[in-house]
Amino acid sequence: MVVILKNNATEEQIENIKNHLAQYGFQIHESRGVQKTILGAIGVQPDFDTRKIRILDGVAEVYRVTAPFKQASRDFKSDDTIIKIKDVEIGGNKLAMMAGPCSIESEEQIFKLADIVAESGAKILRGGAFKPRTSPYSFQGLGEEGLKLMRAAADANNLLMITEVMQISQIEVIEKYTDIFQLGARNMQNFALLKELGNTRTPVMIKRGLSATIEEWLMSAEYVLANGNPNVILCERGIRTFETYTRNTFDLSAIPVVHKRSHLPVIADPSHATGLRDQVAPMARAAVAAGADGLMIEIHHDPENALSDGPQALLPDTFLDLVNELRAIAHAIHRDI
């Protein structure tokens, strides 16, 4: 349920409304925007008579949130969520650029690529220390040693870092190093892990599942939000369809659809969506034009010898050229990188 307050509602009236909601068993989330203040009342009470709240002084309007994802819904919070980490904003007018290797392989590799990320003007270094691989015989990552190397490379270049968490037991160790948790597509519906990430305050980026609908994706975000962590980012990384010419089918239409239904920022990952480097640049350009709040792009200085996902990694010079192209597209739609 959403309670919209009158513009001239006093603090005393607001507190009285919140007290009434609490007495009726609702959890209350207050959102103060530029133009109006909204109280979100969370709780499954199908037969609740909204007139009990509508008659209170200071209330302008009361209506139910019909979407199953309550806190992720645009009805619950009309203003776009902007997640601020140090001096970086995700979800604002400036696009958040995340780049780096699929896997952290060595100190030399991650420092070299962190230099490239910083040179491009991007603010977030990506890289995997714990790698979920289809084959148990593939490289599984360097673990905590990889996290240490990545943190050092990020700090040396004044970058934030984002890395994947695969299971509950990894949260504590990864949180010591990372600025953003990445939840991979395979774990989008790992509800126990989502709940635990909701108990942290570290931002969480949720990649869309391999065959997930938009509603299922937003419901995964709801698990994190409902457990107390408001810092949720969504990532479109392609979905599995009958098409085999690309690694996945990049659902560009999901970006404007999610922006209409939800206030959460949406990042696009053209690297995993396409799986081939010659397709990454065109899809990155298209994602910016479609309104993505940022991009996650894989890069590698020696992709032929990369330990994971080499075919989709851009070479450093190609990546730097691409960022300049993306900057021009962003300017055309009144945004910046």
Overall form: elongated
- The rounded distance between the terminal residues' Cα atoms is 37 Å
- Low-confidence segments: none
What spatial order of strands do you see in the largest sheet?
Answer: 7-8-9-10-11-12-13-14
Tell me the series of helices and strands, N- to C-terminal: EHEEHEEEEHEHEHEHEHEHEHHEH
Helix amount: 25-40%
Share in β-strands: 15-25%
What is the level-2 CATH architecture name of the largest domain?
Alpha-Beta Barrel
Give the averaged pLDDT, no decimals. Answer: 93
CATH topology of the largest domain: TIM Barrel
Query: Using DSSP, what is the number of strands?
Result: 14
Corresponding CATH superfamily of the largest domain: Aldolase class I
Number of domains: 2
Please report the first level of CATH classification, the CATH class of the largest domain. Answer: Alpha Beta
Total helical segments: 11
Could you walk me through the main structural features you see in this protein, from its secondary elements to its overall organization?
The chain has 337 residues and is α/β, with parallel strands linked by helices. It folds into 2 domains: 2-63, Alpha-Beta Plaits, CATH 3.30.70; 83-332, Alpha-Beta Barrel (TIM Barrel). The chain has 11 helices and 14 strands. The strands form 3 sheets. The chain has an 8-stranded parallel beta barrel, surrounded by 5 helices. Helix 5 links the parallel strand 9 and strand 10 (180-183). Helix 3 runs parallel beside helix 4 (144-156) and helix 6 crosses helix 7 (214-226). The radius of gyration is 21 Å and the shape is elongated.
